[in-house]
Write a sequence for this structure.
């Protein structure tokens, strides 16, 4: 008689997808988080994937698998397959590229309208490249990307950062953990109302 296999315990394991337009700094952010140093990545043609297990903070003991998906226009249709089982979306915006703010807004809003996306999935907006003199401030980034228009099903938070230096990235995993917990409570509350 064979031994019965059991499913792995996924408690405390989060699947995160990191999206944004090309050249926003997604891979630089990912590897700054992972290695705590600057890595000059090549444009992502497909995806990068890294696991994190913080040893301190609100997210201590949790496991995060972060999927960094290429942002070139030809790769954006692939985003849909990565969001099906995600616990949160990290959307990276180049704070200096005002000419593409509308494009970033359109991509984020279209993504959140997809039927494939889990209900109540939270969004962490990373306003990257804040070290540069032409960077737009957090409140303006939130306005031009339309964070308030994402709707009540999407808990959001914005963090300003510089992926090259790592400034502002220290709080990313804790912020994701808190957003996911808040969203799960909202989801449970909504399900109770529907009974």
């Amino acid at each position: 008689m064979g031994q019965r296999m059991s499913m792995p315990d996924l408690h405390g394991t989060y699947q995160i997808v990191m999206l944004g337009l090309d050249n926003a700094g997604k891979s630089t952010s990912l590897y700054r988080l992972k290695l705590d140093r600057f890595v000059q990545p090549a444009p992502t043609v497909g995806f990068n994937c890294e696991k994190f297990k913080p040893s301190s903070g609100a997210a201590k003991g949790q496991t995060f698998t972060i999927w960094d998906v290429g942002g070139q226009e030809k790769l954006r249709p692939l985003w849909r397959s990565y969001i099906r089982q995600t616990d949160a979306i990290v959307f990276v915006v180049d704070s200096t590229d005002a000419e593409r703010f509308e494009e970033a807004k359109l991509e984020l809003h279209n993504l959140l309208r997809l039927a494939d996306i889990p209900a109540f999935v939270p969004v962490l907006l990373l306003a990257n490249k804040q070290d540069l003199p032409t960077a737009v401030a957090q409140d303006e980034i939130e306005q031009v990307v339309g964070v308030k228009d994402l709707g009540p099903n999407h808990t959001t938070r914005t963090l300003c950062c510089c992926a090259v230096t790592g400034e502002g990235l220290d709080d990313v995993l804790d912020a994701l953990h808190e957003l996911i917990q808040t969203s799960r409570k909202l989801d449970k509350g909504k399900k109770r109302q529907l009974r």
